[in-house]
Amino acid sequence: MTNGPAKSAEPEQELTTVRDWLRYAVSRFNIAQLVYGHGTATAFDEAAFLILHTLHLPIDQLDPWLDARLLPSERRTLADVVERRISTRKPAPYLINEAWIGGFSFYVDERVIVPRSYIGELMRDRLAGVVSDPGAIRHILDLCTGSGCLAILAAHAFPNAKVDASDISDDALAVAARNVAAYALRNRVRLIASNLFEGLAGRRYDLILANPPYVSEAAVAAFPPEYAAEPVTAHAGGSDGLDIVRRILRQAADHLTPKGVLVIEVGTGREILEGQYPSVPFLWLDTAESQGEVFALHRDALLETECQTGLTEPNGERPVNG
């Protein structure tokens, strides 16, 4: 007499090592056709990040732990986080409330976009391509600060500077405040509620950083669940994605010191910008992970070009400042 087919074992019973769980997670993520881009680019990287974080191990050291055997409680926790990544389709940083840029960790939740700016990568060498004397940078503005990550990176890169970090979202500023406090920078990083420059009248900066919303309406509408989980206001840049970028270009010169510089991330907007501003000497700052997605402009260039003129928007209307 047969008892029928054996019941399949639960993964936490069969998978005993980090290597086992890495293989299992990668397979599950591939089957589920998850989407990446929030600090990782592949199923393998995503699985390694989640597993190492969940086990309280260094996220940049996988090999030493591959054959480590796991306690039953650790296996149950891993099973849970793998299933939540699949069932919720939320980016991994939201599941663990942590994102990394370089060697810096930041608290994140659904109130802010997951930090992943290429400007953060450029900050490692203190914007050497555009800042000749880092010690002379005294006042910095981080527009659209979100989690506060770029403001914090700027404070570390330019130790003589005070940093203003502004955002239109009170929720985002609450997250930024938590990160600023975690890095003990309350005396150097000031958080300001402002719609771009509206709340910054009369203030001038040696360096303005901006990672504004720059995704087109069509692209936002086609977002996979992972990207749709983020605040839409952190992505939506109008019909061609560059409405807010153009506002910054028109107004930035009024908030820069005579030798000040604007550094701004625009995603895939390079061709559109160069077509609309043919005489603007954009200095494109490439990184190991990007080409033509970040540019710099000095104040003189902003003043001397059509950035200050009434350039028409893609819909044919005259732009409105503010």
Task: Please sum up the structure shown.
This protein is α/β, with parallel strands linked by helices and 322 residues long. It has helices at 11-14, 18-32, 43-54, 72-88, 92-96, 118-122, 149-157, 170-182, 217-221, 225-228, 243-251, 270-276, 299-304; strands at residues 99-101, 104-106, 139-143, 162-167, 189-193, 205-210, 256-265, 283-284, 294-298. It has 13 helices and 9 strands.
Keywords:
single chain; 322 residues; alpha/beta; 7-stranded mixed beta sheet; elongated; disordered C terminus
In total, the number of strands is 9
Q: What's the arrangement of strands in the largest beta sheet? A: 5-4-3-6-7-9-8
**How far from one another are the termini?**
80 Å
Largest sheet: 7 strands, mixed
What overall geometry do the principal axes of the alpha carbons give? Answer: elongated
Helix content: 25-40%
DSSP summary: helix tally: 13
| Rounded average pLDDT | 92
Question: What string gives the helices and strands in order?
Answer: HHHHHEEHEHEHEEHHHEHEEH
Structural classification = alpha/beta
Note the beta-strand portion.
Answer: 5-15%
Instruction: List the uncertain runs.
Output: 4-8, 310-322
Question: Explain this structure to me?
Answer:
The protein is an alpha/beta fold. It is 34% helix and 14% strand. The chain has 13 helices and nine strands. The protein has helices at 11-14, 18-32, 43-54, 72-88, 92-96, 118-122, 149-157, 170-182, 217-221, 225-228, 243-251, 270-276, 299-304, and strands at 99-101, 104-106, 139-143, 162-167, 189-193, 205-210, 256-265, 283-284, 294-298. The strands form two sheets. It has a seven-stranded mixed beta sheet with strand order 5-4-3-6-7-9-8. Strand 3, helix 7 (149-157) and strand 4 form a beta-alpha-beta unit. Helix 2 (18-32) crosses helix 3 (43-54), helix 2 (18-32) packs parallel to helix 4 and helix 3 (43-54) crosses helix 4. The protein is elongated and about 70 Å long. The protein starts with 10 loop residues before the first helix and ends in an 18-residue tail after the last helix. Mean pLDDT is 92; it is low at 4-8 and 310-322.
